[in-house]
Amino acid sequence: MLQECGNVVSWKRIQGSSGKFQAFGFCEFDHPESTLRALRLLHDMRLGDKKLVVKVDEKTGELLRSFVAKQRQQQGKPALQLSAGEMPKDEEMTKNDEHYLRAINLL
Q1: Is residue 13 helix, strand or coil?
Q2: What is the pLDDT of residue 95?
Q3: Beta strands of 16-104 (E only): which ranges?
Q4: H helices then E strands: how many in the chain?
Q5: In whole angstroms, what is the distance from residue 104 CA to residue 57 CA?
Q6: Mind listing the GO molecular function terms for this protein (predicted)?
Q7: Contact 45/107 with Cβ under 8 angstroms?
Q8: Using one digit for the tens of pLDDT, what is the confidence trace for 54-89?
Q9: Burial class of residue 95 (count of CB atoms within 10 Å of its CB; 0-12, 13-18, 19+)
Q10: What per-residue string of b and e applies to 32-66 under the rule 16 or more CB within 10 Å gives b?
Q11: Tens of pLDDT, residues 13-39
């Protein structure tokens, strides 16, 4: 599922003290757009009887917001007005989301 959002650099699923895998892990993508896509597409997605939780820490969130702000500035687009902690999202970023969602749903 993660690979459908972009190139995964690392994935670490957490093991408890008993050696049993826990229901969470950490993923690193090679590009900010992949991280943003995973946040948009996978957060709250149903997997069996559970909903996935996909989130970033504060530092990564700030890096993602800065990345999008810089891209928009280079493209001559106005800055997005975001509330505290909100991840950037616009029509350009989400135009191919359906394609990625179909690929994920085929898994």
Answers
A1: strand
A2: 87
A3: 21-29, 46-47, 50-51
A4: 5, 4
A5: 24
A6: mRNA binding
A7: no
A8: 999 999 999 999 999 999 999 999 999 988 888 998
A9: exposed
A10: bbbbbbbbbbbeeeeeeeeeeebebeeeebeebbe
A11: 999 999 999 988 999 999 999 999 999
Q: What is the pLDDT of residue 92?
A: 83
Q: Give me the domains of the chain, ranges plus CATH numbers.
A: 2-76 (3.30.70.330)
Bridge partners of residue 12, in order along the sequence? 26
Enumerate the β-bridge partners of residue 5. Answer: none
The residue among 56, 51, 55 whose CA lies nearest residue 23 is 51
Distances (CA, A) of 43 to 23, 50, 51: 14, 11, 8
pTM of the predicted model over 0.85: yes
Q: How far apart (Å, rounded) are the C-alpha atoms in residues 93 and 46?
A: 23
- In a 3-state reduction of DSSP, which class is residue 45? coil
